[in-house]
Amino acid sequence: MLVVIVAFSGAYNLLVSTVLQHRYPPPGNIYSVDGYAMHLYCTGSGEPTVVVEEGLGDDFITWQRVQPEVAGFTRICTYDRRGLGWSEDRPEPHDAKHFAQQLHALLQAASEKGPFVLVGASAGGFYARQFVSDFPLLVVGMVFSDSSVPDQDGHIPGGGWTPEEARQTHHEAMWDLVAQSTGWARLRGQCKGEVEKGLDAWRDVARAEACRPMYARSGLAEWDEFWHSADQAAEARCCAKIPVVIVSRDPAWRNPAWDPERDARHIAAQPIWNELQESLKALSPQSRRILARGSGHHVNIERPDVLVAAIRQVVNDFRQHKPDTHVGTTIVQ
């Protein structure tokens, strides 16, 4: 009987998921890259084209408070890395080098020729740095959004992913995989397509991509390769010949849910993270930094206006062939 129930609920999840995906397809286009489907969403026009590398496990929806604004003054593309959002997974390492090659192939398939300004958010900063290293002639600028830093493990107390945390994360991810594969998650009402603040218009698309087993599996795969990607980013040849703008969280930001004792590690890490963000200036002699007042890690959700302004500055400087007049400075916005 249990086998029958599991089979029925799994089939039900697959049916509902298929119906929702046909009813609420993503914007943009699906391209075949080495035989696997990849989703790319480009809007706006003009050069350079802005290309976003979202944070670990995130899809294109998380940047829809930024993309419409940037599309008002240049072309911008967001996409789903493999196994996330609307892109198929593939049996290769989920690390910076593979992601950079696949993004390049996706842009080629879509006839997006550049020049490009890359935006790297969180772990996406690793992937963007690798792209610049592999395809330096295509990139004319970089914007980091509270980017991960390769050596953060050695600086932040408890910043490494300990074996215990790894086992716990794998346990949770495997449970998600089982719950989604069997349909249990949908039967419990866990497939509603939660979206971040200000993205309510995208709830139906998020619901259509929710509770697909590949999503839980691929998010875990990125975590597994995080420190490998960090090592690759540290060795990447980025970004000495291009302007770099580093947008960082507010050093004074505190999560309202943090408990002084339970979350002491996170609180102690804030000033250290600020120093690590400052160190990213060393990547380019044409670098500057912006602190997004009142924002935590997800600047694209909490202060999208700051990111839009930073991207606009890099785009305008490229178009006007002039150097950034704020090189080396830290600005609070």
Q: Structural class of the secondary elements?
A: alpha/beta
Oligomer: single chain
Biggest sheet strand order reads 1-2-4-3-5-6-7-8-9
Q: Could you name the CATH topology?
A: Rossmann fold
* Helix and strand pattern: HEEEHEHEHEHHHHHEHEHHE
Number of strands: 9
Per CATH, the class reads: Alpha Beta
Q: Rg, please?
A: 20 Å
Shape annotation = globular
The helix content is 40-55%
At the fourth level of CATH, the homologous superfamily is Alpha/Beta hydrolase fold, catalytic domain
| Largest beta-sheet details | 9 strands, mixed
Q: What do these coordinates show?
A:
With 333 residues, the chain is α/β, with parallel strands linked by helices. The chain has a single domain, classed as 3-Layer(aba) Sandwich (Rossmann fold). Helices cover 42% and strands 15% of the residues. It is built from twelve helices and nine strands. A nine-stranded mixed sheet has the order 1-2-4-3-5-6-7-8-9, sandwiched between helices. Helix 2 links the parallel strand 3 and strand 4. The mean pLDDT is 86.
Task: List descriptors.
single chain; 333 residues; alpha/beta; Rossmann fold; 9-stranded mixed sheet; 9 strands; globular
Write the layout of secondary structure elements.
Blueprint: H1 2-23, E1 29-33, E2 36-43, E3 49-53, H2 67-70, E4 76-79, H3 96-109, E5 116-121, H4 124-134, E6 139-145, H5 163-181, H6 184-187, H7 203-209, H8 213-224, H9 226-235, E7 244-249, H10 264-279, E8 287-292, H11 299-302, H12 304-320, E9 330-332
Parallel strand pairs: 3-4, 3-5, 5-6, 6-7, 7-8, 8-9
Antiparallel strand pairs: 1-2, 2-4
Helix pairs in contact: 1-7, 3-4, 4-9, 5-8
